[in-house]
Amino acid sequence: MPCSNRSAAPATSPTRRPGTSSAPPPWAPEAHRPGAEWGGFCTEFGAHPSPLSTSSRRAAAGGRGRAHVGSMRTRIDPPPGLTDLVALQGGVASIEQVMGLGLPRRSLQRLVAQRRWVHLCRGIYGVEPLTWVSHAWAGTLLGGDRSRIGGTAALHLHGLVAEPPEQIDVWVPREQRPGDRGPWRFRRETPVTHSGATVGGPPRLAVEDAVLDAAADLAEDDWAALVITTVQCRRSTARRLARAARHRQRLRHRRVLDGLLGDVTDGVESPLERAYLHAVERAHGLPRGVRQHRSHGMRRDVVYRGLGVVVELDSRWHDGRIRFDDMWRDNVARLSDEITLRYGWPHVVGSPCRTAQQVAELLIARGWPGLPTRCDRCRRVP
After folding, report:
1. Which 3 state secondary structure label does DSSP give 40?
2. What CA–CA distance (Å, rounded) separates 191 from 174?
3. Which residue has the higher pLDDT, 181 or 148?
4. Lowest-pLDDT choice from 70-79, 80-89, 251-260, 268-277
5. Polar residues compositional bias: what residue ranges (predicted)?
């Protein structure tokens, strides 16, 4: 039979027996909740709504109405602005940043309970995996406005120290007094302690301030190696380091720095090259070589121009491609009628007088008219 000929359903609601009403799900619209039809239900059976009907319904439902209200609470996830900030700050944020960007405290607690976020320390939250950089960011958030990373941690962030330190120094304005906790050590500074420059993220001291600060903790040779590496890696220049040093009333190894920056300006790029300059060349009156000399597309450590003598200083044992590059340099020197001498730490530091004697003999054989001089530790000079 065609559907159009079917009898229509009665317009009136089907009869329901008292006590058999079924509670709708919590997401049901308000019009279908218990009580929205309570008046019609009572009228259908000849009853009238009671003022206590709401309490009666809660009692009859065993408190289910309150559970429904709780389940209707809106779930708030981190807004995009907060997500972007956390990604920018190494995965961490302060409670002020979290709430200021629209995530309520209750929602944050839910994320921590669900292990989607972690409570790093008081007032600092983050998203795993947390790294050393995350803890560095957390230190600046704990330190407040104008705080910045210093010490070995700053050197690591500048790429001058390979391994991240366990302790993270955080410089804060003098009026702030955060207490040390966890891996963070907070140090107060005045406007004259460092330059006003703050760089990078997480915020850190300028590389010149970080290098000069390290003089207080490092031995002379270690600090000299750091200064040379800073210039060699082009993190700074001798002029900028000297300018930063002039603004400091107190600076350990200041006398060493003055001579060291002159060596760097002359082309010294490693502690071994500096040792050769002072313990071999200058101490024994050898002619002044040209540092970092470029020819035939290659760079040589020390070249005694006009004499055809090249000195290569290898601070570590070479292997692989670096060793083959050394072979190329030696072959080019031979084709150019040059002789290459190679020395390492044992020759320059362990036996500087013997090394000077060998270099002097070759220089004299190649036409140098001078003679080497005797240093304080010399035993025999021809």
Report:
1. helix
2. 9
3. 148
4. 70-79
5. 1-22
Query: Any alpha helices (H) in the chain, and if so which ranges?
Result: 38-44, 53-60, 64-71, 80-88, 95-100, 105-113, 132-143, 151-157, 207-214, 220-232, 238-246, 254-265, 271-275, 320-335, 345, 352-365
What CA–CA distance (Å, rounded) separates 153 from 205?
Answer: 10
Name residue 317's amino acid. W
Measured CA to CA, the distance from residue 359 to residue 341 in angstroms comes to 8
366 neighbors 307 (Cβ within 8 angstroms)? yes
Q: Is 90 left (phi over 0), alpha (psi -120 to 50) or beta?
A: left
Superfamily of domain 285-365: VSR Endonuclease (3.40.960.10)
DSSP one-letter string for 67-101: HHHHHTSPP-PPPHHHHHHHHHTTTEEEHHHHHHT
Rounded Cα distance, 106 and 224, in Å: 53
Residue for token digits 């990078």? 200
The yes-or-no verdict on residue 54 having pLDDT over 50 is no
Tokens of 230: 């800073």
Long-range contacts, stretch 193-198, CB < 8 angstroms, 24+ apart: 194/150, 195/244, 195/247, 198/146, 198/148
Q: Tell me, what's the pLDDT at 332?
A: 56
Residue 287 has pLDDT above 60, yes or no: yes
Residue pointed to by tokens 């970080």:
210
Domain boundaries, the chain: 80-130, 134-265, 285-365
What pLDDT does 334 receive? 59
> What's the average model confidence in pLDDT over 342-370?
90
For the ranges 43-47, 105-109, 290-294, which has the lowest average pLDDT?
Answer: 43-47
Tell me if 127 sits within 8 A of 116, measured CB to CB.
Answer: yes
Burial 258-267 (b: 16+ CB within 10 A, else e): eebbebbebe
Measured in Å, how far apart are the chain's first and last C-alpha atoms? 128
The predicted model scores a pTM of 0.63
pLDDT at 379: 59
Annotate 100-114 with b (16+ C-beta within 10 A) or e (fewer): ebebeeebbeebeee
